[in-house]
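Researcher: Before we compare anything, I want clean individual predictions. No alignment, no superposition, just each chain on its own. First chain goes here; please echo the sequence and then give the structure tokens.
Model: Echoing the first chain and its structure:
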Amino acid sequence: MDIIVLLKQVPATDTLVKIADDGVSIRTEDIKWVINPYDEFAVEEALRIKADMAGTVTVLSVGPDKAQEAIRGALAMGADKGIHVNDPALERCDALTVARVIAATLKSESYDLIIAGHRAVDDDNFQVGPAVAEYLGIPHIPFVVQQEITDEEIKCERTVEGGIAVIKAPLPMLFTTQRGLNEPRLPSLPGIMKAKSKPLEIKSLSDIGLDDGSVADPLTKVISLNLPPERKAGRMIEGETAEEKASSLVRALAEEAKVI
């Protein structure tokens, strides 16, 4: 069972994100970068499948030089090798361009299963995993919370509004992870040491059969980034009794907020 895990490096959720001077990107100087949490579920599930069925786990990431830190983190968890697509032309690419780059990379790789987080916590666009499956022409099941592989087929339980759907698909296929699928392991010290010597291929666009022109005009572009407006301080409703407070509240909602 050869498994590909799609991985993205994102700012930690407790990091204070600031808008850069260009108005369309964020400042990266003081950001703590981590593996996208939903991609950690993907790495963990791949390792569990490998333990049951043998095979290899390859981690694939598209990003700048620092993305190798996330790849090495997955290798420390137990993945076998990494692939890093790094090209200056990809600096401002959109999700569909990333998916096309990943699909082009995988056309020269052997795989039975692709696993990805259902979304990245930085842009929340939910696009890369499904788009990769579409470009490769393979089935896709999103939001998986449980899976079972038998006889070249996978049966997945996925979350839907109000319940769980059970879906089967032939291999090769791609599924995206949802919270509840597993509990990702922490890298051990021996795992961290071994990760330093595990193979990590670095590829440019030309290495995967693409050129700068193919990514030069993304379908979506960031026009501007703006912080949400500051919230006004709360106001305490005063009164001697509950009736007085209720009366003052209703008056404020009607005359000042004008919501009733």
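Researcher: Okay. Second chain, same rules.
Model: Second chain and its structure:
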Amino acid sequence: MTMRHGDRAGPVSVRRPAWLPTDVWPFEASSIEVDHARVAYYDAGEGPTLLLVHTGLWAFIWRDLIRLLSTRFRCVAVDSPGTGQSPADARPPTLDRAANAVTAVIEFLRLRELTLVIHDLGGISGIVGAARSTTKVVGVVAINAFSWTPGGIPLRSMLYLLGSAPLREFDAWTRLIPRITATRFGIGRHLDRKSRAAFLGGLQSAQARTFHRYLADALHCEALYREAARALGGDYRDLPTLTIFGEHNDPFHFQGEWKRRFRHAEQLVLTGGNHFPMCDDPTFVSEAIRRWHACHN
């Protein structure tokens, strides 16, 4: 991972796109150059740092959680390469590049200590990205996330199907999965029409392709999974851990695996929740994080 030394003098402000009004998304984006591409990040609030990492869609999924938590915490979120306000480039997006982006933001902002809040493929990019940095991780909040080699025919088949070129190109044409994700079955349970349009504004055809390419890469990044395993079995082994999963979205039993690896983990299930508990009930999730963090810090 390389980061331009010139970026140390200060981040570059990202011009707000027309599809992202401030009343819907009040957070300003800045960017740094990582591996010869721009990576956007958001930095809101003051207090202990929460680093919110998701890879595949973009940071809009954290909006309501940031609004609620930034009154007490410093909330930093990253748009992985090729998603949201991080532009795509000629190289394919990979989870290794997403992890590099996490590392670079940590180092650029000089985050000495943080709690990782990870979702979905942000589990692997967040764990590895933080482990590559000089920061001290003081806790992990896993929200419908995994951080290990995907095993079992159902999970690997799902990743293979969603990462396949035919489905990728179909979705780039129709944006079907982004549209479904914007409904109440995804992040949209409490979104108004304007908010839903802003979320979809960050998921045009190019970003939809990126989403599917990250899923495809999840089947082929064994070196990254080995890095994650070293972190989870080493420095992170005894960290305070909180897992929050939606009642209707743990078909691959990830929450049980977190418990197996972190036997002291606190585990919560959001009744009626789906894949995005922080969007289904942001108050429940934010209060859980506040309480858990207060108990361990």
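Researcher: What stands out in the second chain?
Model: Strands lie at 12-13, 29-34, 37-44, 49-55, 74-78, 113-120, 136-145, 241-246, 266-270. Additionally, Residues 4-9 have pLDDT under 50 and may be disordered.
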